[in-house]
């Protein structure tokens, strides 16, 4: 039997106008993977947050950079990989806000990483072959 | 592409802001401006009618967060109504249903406001 | 001023289950390009037909191959490029059926290329750097 | 993902086949089988109720094309009703509105059938 590729990749300019394309795709991919509508919506928001962070923080708004997204179907999960060559984020630097505290002292940002970790089963940041990667996993029952 | 359009209705002491479409990092400035315009005009009690809001990311939550203290300091509030399931999921996941009053529809929101004004 | 990339790429396995992802993306891209809903629907069908032809004819159903799609926003048009390494189609081989004749003698296939040419402003087939390309253009008013 | 689901209703001499979702090269076999099952069962007058058909590519047209002569040879027909705009656009672009009778809704289609049976 031949190995059949079960993934697809999307490469977009680092511009927020393309966010909808990526989230739309992530939603459809989630449905293909067998996740239900509500979970698919959450996955697409997690992808939105991760890509927005690359555009805003890693590339600091430089519209001439590229973001690459790969969606992989593995037997028990949907794996999402997001690559960029901007400023990386180390996993041990990530501090998630406590929603209880946040509610007491509202401020403008800082919810993206929290939503990613709440909506996905695993979120990792690492460096792969000169690029920075954010990998998110959602298990399929 | 019109990812987001916003309708603003004002009646009595309540300003109703109804976003239609997607609020993400791309469209959030438009949403934020609409909110800020109300606050600048002295409208501190704002109902976000989310019936046609299909999507909101943390960028959109940030815009609301950035104004909640100002409106409350002015004895106003930001209320939410008619949330679609996935929009509700975000508020709920973050525990924001404690921070904001969420109503089934505009009528319920107005009723609650009338009661608290008594 | 920096050159800002105004395109994005999608790479999918040569499998019909991914068609919906591509057409969904083509539709959104059309809207981003400023085309209206009805035209966007037509562009997405043209892309469906072109990618289906690659899967069915160029790769003859081999699920282990890849199809690459690029959507480019140029000032006056949306340009769609579809690349594969299977069996190519020469532009001078393309014979479009006459719908009038077709209606008199219905048969099962042969409408894909016709729809592509009707729904897009330009359709080209050519070889580019060892790959076969189908390029379709839709002008934006 | 359920890209396509198909409902079949039979009443009197008319079989109504209502596809819900997308007909493309991926789902077309399912659509084709449903059509073929009707024809095998001797149902030659088939109404395609397209109210919930969001999308059809040439693969789907091919499936209809492949059966039109068979049903007509058996004094039946394939009729269409309730087409969404983009689905209509395809039939219209190819001039197939001459090949198939297209109705606004099921009632209109039944009325026309009753008249031609008179
Ligand atoms: N991809 C990234 N590269 C570099 N820094 C990042 C990245 N993603 C997040 N950060 C940092 O983590 C912080 C928290 O991110 P997040 O929770 O998404 O909230 P926000 O983006 O609203 O600030 C950001 O303010 C930023 O300093
Ligand atoms: N990408 C391609 N590579 C090779 N041959 C192709 C390709 N696309 C189309 N063809 C040929 O052109 C014919 C007409 O294609 P089309 O109009 O899409 O109808 P259909 O796919 O239903 O046969 C096909 O039957 C095939 O022989």
Quaternary: heterotetramer
Radius of gyration of chain A: 15 Å
Strand content of chain B: 25-35%
Q: Provide the low-confidence segments of chain A as ranges.
A: none
**What is the CATH level 1 assignment of chain B?**
Alpha Beta
Radius of gyration of chain B equals 13 Å
> Strand tally of chain A, please?
5
> Which architecture name of chain A does CATH use?
2-Layer Sandwich
CATH superfamily descriptor of chain B: STAS domain
Helix content of chain A: 25-40%
Tell me what portion of residues of chain A adopts beta-strand conformation. 25-35%
Please give a structural write-up.
The complex is a heterotetramer, with 2 copies of chain A (about 140 residues) and 2 copies of chain B (about 120 residues). Chain A has a single domain, classed as 2-Layer Sandwich (Heat Shock Protein 90). In chain A, about 35% of the residues lie in helices and about 30% in strands. Chain A contains 4 helices and 5 strands, in the order βααββααββ. A 5-stranded antiparallel beta sheet of chain A has the order 1-2-3-5-4. The longest helix of chain A has 22 residues. Chain A is globular, with a radius of gyration of 15 Å. The two termini of chain A are about 25 Å apart. Chain B is α/β, with parallel strands linked by helices and about 120 residues long. Chain B has one domain: Transcription Regulator spoIIAA (2-Layer Sandwich), CATH 3.30.750. Chain B has 4 helices and 6 strands. In chain B, strands 1, 2, 3, 4, 5 and 6 form a 6-stranded mixed beta sheet that branches. Chain B is globular and about 40 Å long. Classes of the chains: A alpha+beta (about 140), B alpha/beta (about 120). Chains in contact: A-B, A-C, C-D. At the A-B interface, helix 1, helix 2, helix 3 and helix 4 of A face helix 2 and helix 3 of B. The structure holds adenosine-5'-diphosphate (ADP) (2 copies). One adenosine-5'-diphosphate (ADP) binds next to helix 2 and helix 4 of chain C.
């Amino acid at each position: 039997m031949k190995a059949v590729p079960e993934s697809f990749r999307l490469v977009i300019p680092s511009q927020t106008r393309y966010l909808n394309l990526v989230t739309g795709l992530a939603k459809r991919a989630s449905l293909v993977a067998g996740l239900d509508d509500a979970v698919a919506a959450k996955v697409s928001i997690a992808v939105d947050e991760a890509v927005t962070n690359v555009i805003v923080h890693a590339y600091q708004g430089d519209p001439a950079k590229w973001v690459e997204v790969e969606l992989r179907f593995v037997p028990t999960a949907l794996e999402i990989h997001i690559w960029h060559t901007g400023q990386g984020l180390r996993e041990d630097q990530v501090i998630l806000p406590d929603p209880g505290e946040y509610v007491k002292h509202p401020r403008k940002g800082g919810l993206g990483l929290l939503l990613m970790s709440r909506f996905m089963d695993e979120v990792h940041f690492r460096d792969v072959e000169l690029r920075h990667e954010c990998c998110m996993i959602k298990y399929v029952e | 592409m019109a990812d987001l359009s916003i309708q603003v209705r004002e009646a009595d002491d309540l300003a109703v802001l109804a976003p239609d479409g997607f609020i993400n990092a791309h469209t959030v400035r438009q949403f934020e401006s609409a909110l800020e315009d109300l606050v600048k005009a002295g409208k501190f009690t704002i109902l976000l009618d989310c019936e046609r809001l299909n999507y909101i990311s943390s960028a959109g939550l940030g815009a609301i967060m950035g104004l909640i203290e100002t409106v409350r300091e002015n004895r106003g509030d930001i209320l939410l109504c008619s949330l679609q399931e996935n929009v509700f999921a975000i508020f709920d996941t973050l525990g924001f249903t404690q921070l904001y009053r969420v109503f089934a529809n505009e009528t319920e929101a107005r009723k609650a406001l009338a009661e608290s004004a008594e």
